[in-house]
Design brief:
By secondary structure, the chain is of the alpha+beta class. 29% of the residues lie in helices and 41% in strands. The protein is built from 2 helices and 5 strands. Strands 1-2-3-5-4 form a 5-stranded mixed barrel. A hairpin with a 2-residue loop joins strand 2 and strand 3. The chain is elongated and about 60 Å long. The termini are far apart. The model has no long low-confidence stretch (mean pLDDT 84).
């Protein structure tokens, strides 16, 4: 009985670690940053995750057309029925129109 408990804990930890990366989807999108510091592409609005590359995009490239590579995840606040999309920007480049 004592040996089965540690094995169960290890299995739960492994499943927890494997489930996290599956929640985010890596994409390439072309759009622009609006005045609310959100990325808009194909009519979809994405909140920009807080990291150095995302901050550079938000503060230095508002209203410019950019190609963004990043990971998208859906976030649902507790008590809310609707989820919103968050993009963690990994890289971007300004696109000439």
């Amino acid at each position: 009985m004592r040996k089965s408990i540690p094995y169960g804990v290890v299995i739960l930890i492994i499943f927890g670690l494997l489930a996290s990366p599956a929640a985010a989807v890596r994409v390439t999108l072309v759009g622009e940053v609006n005045d609310n510091q959100q990325f808009v592409a194909d009519g979809q609005i994405y909140e920009i995750d807080n990291n150095a590359v995302g901050d550079d995009l938000v503060f230095n490239h508002i209203a410019q057309r950019v190609k963004v590579v990043g990971q998208i995840k859906s976030v649902r606040e507790s008590g809310e029925s609707d989820a919103y999309q968050v993009i963690k920007v990994e890289s971007f480049e300004v696109v000439e129109e």
